[in-house]
């Protein structure tokens, strides 16, 4: 059995860009990672790091006129999604891969009832009658903890709270028992209590349905709670990829270390929270040579702006993209040759 068949999802060297004044600028640059069956993989990083663009690339939902997947492959159960047309993708979206979109306040269509939007998923992929679809929609709402589903099914999104809308989004995403659920910051814009409830719900659904989850977040507290594996992205690239316990105990990239250092400690008094200076570079100003984090990195040295680091294994399955690990130098560089000779 090939690696592509072992992995449920395998993203290989993905490059996705947007046209700005006629020129293609890559928001996702050479991204590779895998999601195994029943695994929870968290994709973390600041806003603007390419997390959502990458997830929309997987679902083939980016607008064609202004964006393009210029290179790479996205294997789902061994089939390359990049090569599929919209009609073929429609058979996969919702049925094989479910997605919870960012911002529950705006993801639902305001002019249709909750029931209409839930049933649309069912009608698209099954031969259910209207009565059967309505009954299944009510059952789904009960599964995600919505009270009074018989009444809410006929209400509109504006009549529901943010937490309730997010539960509806989850119900839509799991309606047909997908093998992979992509959740794009599912707790954004929700209060802390509701965030905890939504995370608990996702964990319960994953246990019950045996599905894999690709969870996109910038909240490392969420990551510690639910992840099996963590993929850290910065400026459109994967800068670290490791099992969750390994990443928290032994980060190999200064960006990951800075993110972990930004988490408030309950047992320490702090006058100010730790922050990462500077901002993620814009698409037009993305460095073409050297490390993309170099301008903000407290550990940067001379080579960081001259030599482009490669994503490489630095400790078993632990991968990083940082020249502090000599394995990450290009293969023809003396530092790389020294590292592999030891």
Topology of this structure?
Elements: H1 3-6, E1 9-20, E2 23-35, E3 40-44, H2 51-58, E4 67-76, E5 79-80, H3 86-92, E6 97-100, H4 104-107, H5 114-125, H6 130-143, H7 149-152, H8 162-174, E7 180-184, H9 192-209, E8 212-217, H10 220-226, E9 229-234, E10 237-243, H11 244-249, H12 254-261, E11 312-315, E12 318-320, H13 334-341
Parallel strand pairs: 3-8, 3-9, 6-7, 7-8
Antiparallel strand pairs: 1-2, 1-4, 4-5, 9-10, 10-12, 11-12
Helix pairs in contact: 5-6, 6-8, 8-9
CATH class placement:
Alpha Beta
Oligomer: single chain
- Adjacency order of strands in the biggest sheet: 6-7-8-3-9-10-12-11
Helix content: 25-40%
Largest sheet geometry: 8 strands, mixed
Q: Based on CA inertia axes, which overall geometry fits?
A: globular
Question: What is the average per-residue confidence, as pLDDT, rounded to a whole number?
Answer: 91
Order of helices and strands: HEEEHEEHEHHHHHEHEHEEHHEEH
Number of E-state strands: 12
Report the CATH superfamily. Answer: P-loop containing nucleotide triphosphate hydrolases
Using the 3D structure, state the CATH architecture.
3-Layer(aba) Sandwich
Q: In CATH terms, what is the fold-level topology?
A: Rossmann fold
- Beta-strand fraction estimate: 15-25%
Tally of domains:
1
What structural class results from the helix and strand content? alpha/beta
**Low confidence ranges:** none
Q: Give the count of helical stretches.
A: 13
| Radius of gyration (Å) | 21 Å
């Amino acid at each position: 059995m090939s690696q592509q068949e072992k992995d449920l999802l395998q993203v290989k060297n993905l490059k996705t860009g947007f046209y700005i004044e006629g020129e293609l600028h890559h928001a996702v640059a050479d991204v590779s990672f895998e999601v195994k069956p029943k695994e929870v993989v968290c994709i973390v990083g600041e806003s603007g790091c390419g997390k959502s663009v990458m997830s929309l690339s997987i679902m083939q939902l980016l607008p064609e006129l202004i964006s393009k997947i210029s290179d790479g492959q996205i294997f789902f159960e061994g089939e390359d999604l990049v090569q599929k047309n919209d009609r073929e993708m429609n058979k996969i979206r919702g049925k094989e891969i479910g997605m919870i979109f960012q911002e529950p306040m705006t993801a639902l269509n305001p002019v249709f009832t909750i029931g209409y939007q839930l049933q649309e998923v069912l009608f698209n992929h099954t031969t259910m009658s209207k009565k059967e679809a309505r009954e299944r929609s009510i059952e789904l709402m009960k599964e995600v903890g919505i009270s009074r589903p018989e009444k809410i099914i006929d209400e509109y999104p504006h009549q529901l709270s943010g937490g309730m809308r997010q539960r509806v989004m989850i119900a839509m995403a799991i309606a047909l028992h997908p093998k992979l659920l992509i959740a794009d910051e599912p707790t954004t814009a929700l209060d802390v209590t509701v965030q905890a409830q939504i995370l608990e719900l996702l964990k319960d659904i994953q246990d019950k349905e045996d599905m894999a989850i690709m969870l996109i977040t910038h909240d490392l507290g969420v990551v510690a709670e639910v992840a099996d594996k963590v993929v850290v992205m910065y400026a459109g690239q994967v800068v670290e990829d490791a099992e969750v316990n390994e990443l928290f105990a032994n980060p190999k990239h200064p960006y990951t270390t800075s993110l972990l250092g930004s988490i408030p400690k309950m047992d320490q008094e702090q006058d100010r929270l730790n922050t990462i200076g500077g901002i993620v570079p814009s698409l037009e100003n993305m460095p073409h040579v050297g490390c993309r984090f170099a301008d903000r990195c407290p550990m940067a040295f001379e080579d960081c702006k001259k030599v482009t680091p490669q994503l490489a294994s630095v400790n078993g399955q632990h991968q990083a993209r940082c020249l502090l690990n000599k394995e990450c130098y290009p293969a023809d560089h003396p530092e790389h040759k020294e590292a592999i000779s030891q």
